[in-house]
Structures are given as structure tokens and as C-alpha cells.
Design a protein that fits this description.
Blueprint: H1 2-13, H2 21-50, H3 56-63, H4 68-81, H5 89-98, H6 103-115, H7 118-128, H8 130-152, H9 162-166, H10 181-216, H11 219-226, H12 231-241, H13 248-260, H14 265-277, H15 280-286, H16 292-315, H17 317-320
Helix pairs in contact: 1-2, 2-7, 2-10, 3-5, 4-6, 4-8, 5-6, 6-8, 7-8, 7-13, 8-16, 10-13, 12-14, 12-16, 13-14, 14-16
């Protein structure tokens, strides 16, 4: 449907040729923008109905006093089920600390939440297929789960800003919502307006970058820059993702274009994860609640994990794809 729409608009009405860089780039742009925005609106609205009762305060209450592997699994699962991005990191971090949740569990949640959520999963599957999506989700959740144990081993509580420990949010912070049909519709539609309104520009930027790569950048040039999947090429991909800022939805078109140009799967996975969870804005936001040693440890773990993920999947690419 989206391919036919882009073909009608770009090739039939505009008269461009699929053999030209401009035609190929515009077709990619129109098709992916339409596909992503339709999927975003639909999924966010449907999930809004189901998530009408799942506020950050309720997530905090569900996790209160929990520890151990079960708590980490719940944290990672809630991170994947909730659409909280880096802008929510500070209140969630403070709320989890106030609720007595171990810091390692909190950090597992903070890794999983921006990297994996139901909206990104559906959009990713619609753009590049379920196989790549399942690989991305499995590796993202594993990185989050293991990260809680690794970071907790360093006793990170000493590196949390002092004011965080002094905050008492109280039970009054919990929000009660009307669960009627009209209220759920209003909540779901408000979710669509807020989330799409917040990320549409990243969708356009991401699709635009992907369109330029798809239409104008020769495949052999991309393959040369990306390398052959070596450790060095994966490290470069992770470093390239750090200055960028996007959520999971915005980086998907770029990943699609890179895969289409022959960039190895592991390199693309490492790049995606770095853009989403290791970007400078994300780190600067977290710096407001943790001290430099913990921030550096958090970033070092993520960078190391992403490089290992990239190298592993590059080594297994002949089996996976």
C-alpha cells in the first residue's frame, strides 16, 4: 500500500524515474514517512487504551521494594512496555530511588525503556521485518538485564546526587484516572498528539537521512566506510551514534537504508543502540541525578555492550540472514 502510494506520487504524478538518484530518494522518503506515521498513530492510539492506567507513578508502585532477578526481569519488561524516553529519566529515577528499588534494577529499566518499546517494535517490524526486529529486541533486553548486575557490582549508590536521596514523593503523587470508554479514547488520542508531536521531526530527519543514503550514496562507498564487520568498524559505528539524538522510531529509516546498502547487521544494530541509548543529550539529562563516575560507568558499559553485540552478530550474519 505505502509502496504503491509513493510510486503514484513520485513516479506517476511527478514524472520522476526510479533509475535516478532523486527519484529513488523521494520514493524512499514518501513511502517511509507515510508508513511510519500511519503505524505510529495506530499503535500509539491502541496502546493508549491499554496503557490508560499505567502511569509512571504506578510503575514505581509496582516495583516498590522488589529486588533480585525477578525484579530485574520486571524492570526490563516494564521498560519495554512503557514509552518513557530520556525526558522522563529524571522523575522515573527519583521515583524509583524513593520507592526503595535497588539502583541496579533502576538502571536496567533506564536502559530498556528508550531502546525497546511497543511502538518502536511495530514500526521496526513494518519497515525492516520481524526477523531484524526480534534480534534487536532480544539484544536490547539482554543488554538491559545484564547491565543491572554489572553496574550494581560497583555499588553505584555512592554516586547518586545527594538531593535525590532526600526527595520524598509520597503516595499522593499517584494519579487516578477515569477508566470509562470516553476517558480512554481521550487519553489515547492525547498520547497520539503528544508522542507524534514530540517525535515527528525526528522521523522526518531520520527518513531524510535514509533517503539520501538510499538514493545518492553508492553501495560500494557505504560498504567501504562501514568496513567488513570488523571490531574497528563496529566501534566507529558506536562512536558515530553518540553525537546523534533520536528515539527508536527516528533511527529506523537510517538503519533500513544502511542495511539496503550492504552494511553488516551487527554494525547497524550497534549504531542504532548507540543513537538511542548512548547519545549526548541522554547522558546530559542523566547527569542531573547521578555524579560523573556513575555516568561514565553507565556510558562505558553501554558502549562495550553495543560493540560486543555488533561483533557477535557480524560473526553470525551468515547464519542469521
Amino acid at each position: 500500500m505505502f509502496d504503491a502510494f509513493a510510486t503514484l506520487l513520485v513516479f506517476d504524478l511527478a514524472g520522476l524515474s526510479a533509475e535516478t538518484p532523486l527519484g529513488a530518494a523521494l520514493h524512499f522518503f514518501v513511502m517511509d514517512v507515510a508508513k511510519i506515521l500511519v503505524l505510529l498513530t495506530t499503535v500509539i492510539y491502541l496502546m493508549g487504551w491499554l496503557r490508560a492506567l499505567l502511569t509512571p507513578e504506578r510503575v514505581r508502585a509496582m516495583m516498590r521494594g522488589r529486588s533480585g532477578p525477578g525484579a530485574r526481569l520486571m524492570a526490563v519488561g516494564l521498560g519495554a512496555a512503557t514509552p518513557f524516553c530520556s525526558c522522563s529519566s529524571i522523575p522515573l529515577f527519583i521515583g524509583f530511588v524513593e520507592a526503595g528499588i535497588p539502583l541496579g534494577v533502576t538502571l536496567s529499566f533506564l536502559i530498556a525503556s528508550p531502546m525497546v518499546n511497543q511502538v518502536a517494535v511495530v514500526v521496526l517490524a513494518g519497515v525492516i521485518g520481524w526477523q531484524m526486529t526480534l534480534i534487536y529486541v532480544a539484544t536490547g533486553l539482554t543488554v538491559a538485564f545484564v547491565g543491572g548486575y554489572v553496574l550494581q557490582a560497583f555499588k553505584p549508590e555512592r554516586w547518586v546526587e545527594d538531593y535525590v536521596w532526600k526527595i520524598h514523593m509520597g503516595e499522593a503523587a499517584q494519579e487516578e484516572r477515569d477508566t470509562g470508554l470516553r476517558a480512554r479514547h481521550d487519553y489515547a488520542w492525547n498520547e497520539v498528539r503528544q508522542i507524534v508531536g514530540r517525535i515527528w521531526k525526528y522521523v522526518l530527519i531520520g527518513v531524510g537521512i535514509g533517503a539520501v543514503i538510499h538514493g545518492y550514496v553508492p553501495a560500494d562507498f557505504v560498504a567501504k566506510i562501514a568496513g567488513d564487520g570488523s571490531v574497528l568498524s563496529v566501534i566507529v559505528a558506536v562512536l558515530a551514534g553518540v553525537p546523534m539524538y533520536s528515539d527508536a522510531v527516528g533511527v529506523i529509516p537510517v538503519a533500513e537504508a544502511l542495511l539496503g546498502k550492504g552494511v553488516p547487521l551487527g554494525t547497524v544494530l550497534a549504531f542504532m543502540m548507540a543513537v538511542i541509548a548512548l547519545s549526548l543529550p541522554e547522558m546530559l539529562i542523566l547527569r542531573k541525578v547521578v555524579k560523573w563516575p556513575l555516568l561514565g560507568l553507565f556510558a562505558a558499559y553501554l558502549a562495550t555492550a553495543f560493540v560486543l553485540v555488533g561483533v557477535l552478530f557480524n560473526a553470525l550474519r551468515s547464519v542469521i540472514l
